[in-house]
Specification:
By secondary structure, this protein is α/β, with parallel strands linked by helices. It is built from 11 helices and 16 strands. It folds into 2 domains: 85 residues, Urease, subunit C, domain 1 (Roll), CATH 2.30.40.10; 291 residues, TIM Barrel, CATH 3.20.20.140. The longest helix is centred in the last third of the chain and has 18 residues.
Length: 397
């Protein structure tokens, strides 16, 4: 898909106007250029930002494009998990079709990289892994995708899930997932034995959903930190949601953050409206990598979400009371460079030699782009324009 392209008159990260020359899908030069004979894209003074990074999605189970689902589920997490487990069959949620629909939606908004947690359970086996892998192969020109083999229904509470996770990793999943070692499996040591054991066996990283609040979540987090250090897995572990970092005990939170920084464990936050949230600026100041994601959108858990990571940057900013321009810029960084670092993407950004993945959008500065979230966006993936005005050129039924 890649080719040579000259992008004229854009302002990387709101800076001075430049031209960006793309050769073989990578940024070859940044500055004034005349590159005769090269295809030209007129930027018209737009902002240029790196491709947005959706660092936490659930592509296999969105209901996007399906009939409206009336949600009357809850209130507990287990209620939602059990309902979803039943609904996969009754609603006809096809993982390949639905994941492709959400990818195309995400690309239209400017996302160029996605990490998706894909359900592995004794009801569906590895069917969802197979479906999302098919999407990854089919849409490789639009998106770079990582798959997390995720035991959404629980691991130890459903015998056979361990073996299915092992199979998913052997099939090519990129990361081993986990979920609430105390609250769901009620056996934190046993849960982490399996998750980290599979990571060691397959040479992969770990990404654990940690919804557990307060002291329970802090206890699970401490065990994850200890395991990371003991196995030498610094820089390979992510804790998603991490609601316990929002608990009203600053001394306890500060100790956890210091330990996370020491173990080089990244944090994923959605900027949740209804739950305690990790403090983004404090984590950043301590050197902890922070990424963000939409989590589930339009699914049996809830009706919200549109996969727009520019909007997600606004949510992160609102949840963390980020008002200064430099603070809002940090919220955007969570949805770009932070997510890329969380996913271990080393060749990312608006720099010479990196893949030409970027979003061009109107605005005087980055903060204006975050708060206004213009639909008028041009999305470039490896030097090819793949979306304009909120719509990807590739569509799925």
């Amino acid at each position: 898909m890649s080719h040579d392209l000259l992008i004229r008159d854009v302002r990387p990260m709101g800076g001075a106007p430049v031209d960006i020359l793309v050769k073989d899908g990578r940024i070859a030069a940044i500055g004034k250029s005349d590159a005769a004979g090269t295809e030209i894209l007129e930027g018209g003074g737009r902002l240029a930002i790196p491709g947005l990074v959706e660092a936490h999605a659930h592509l296999d189970k969105t209901l996007w494009g399906m009939d409206w689902y009336r949600n009357e589920v809850g209130p507990s997490l287990r209620d939602k998990i059990d309902n979803e487990r039943r609904s996969k069959r009754t609603l006809g949620i096809d993982p390949a079709r639905q994941s492709a629909r959400q990818v195309v939606l995400s690309v239209g908004h400017g996302t160029t990289h996605i990490r998706t947690h894909v359900d592995v359970d004794t009801e569906m086996g590895v069917e969802a892994i197979e479906g999302v892998m098919a999407t990854r192969a089919a849409l490789a020109d639009l998106i770079d995708m990582q798959l997390v083999a995720f035991p959404q229904s629980g691991l130890l509470v459903h015998p056979g899930t361990h073996e299915l996770l092992d199979r998913a990793m052997a099939m090519g999943a990129d990361v081993v997932g986990g979920l609430d070692p105390c609250g769901i499996d009620r056996d934190p040591k046993g849960h982490l034995d399996v998750v980290f054991g599979l990571a060691q066996k397959h040479g992969r990283g770990v990404d654990i959903h940690l919804h557990e609040p307060g002291e329970m979540g802090a206890f699970s987090m401490e065990l994850i930190i200890e395991r990371t250090r003991a196995l030498g897995m610094q820089g390979q572990v992510v804790i998603s949601h991490a609601f316990c970092l929002g608990m009203p005990d600053p001394a306890a939170v500060d100790r956890l953050i210091a330990d996370l920084a020491d173990a080089r464990i990244a944090i994923m936050t959605t900027g949740p409206a209804s739950r305690p949230a990790p403090p983004v600026l404090k984590l950043h100041k301590a050197g902890v990598v922070v990424g963000s994601g939409s989590d589930g959108i339009r699914d049996t858990w809830g009706p919200y979400g549109n996969a727009d990571m520019l909007e997600r940057a606004m949510f992160v900013g609102l949840r963390n009371n980020l008002r200064r321009d430099d603070e809002v810029e940090q919220a955007l960084a969570v949805c770009t460079t932070g997510g890329a670092a969380m996913m271990g993407i080393t060749d990312y950004g608006l720099r010479i030699g990196a893949p030409a993945d970027m979003v061009l959008l109107p605005g005087t500065c980055l903060t204006e782009a975050v708060v206004s979230r213009p639909r008028d966006r041009i999305v470039v993936k490896r030097g090819t324009v793949v979306a304009r005005d909120g719509e990807a050129f590739h569509q799925v039924n």
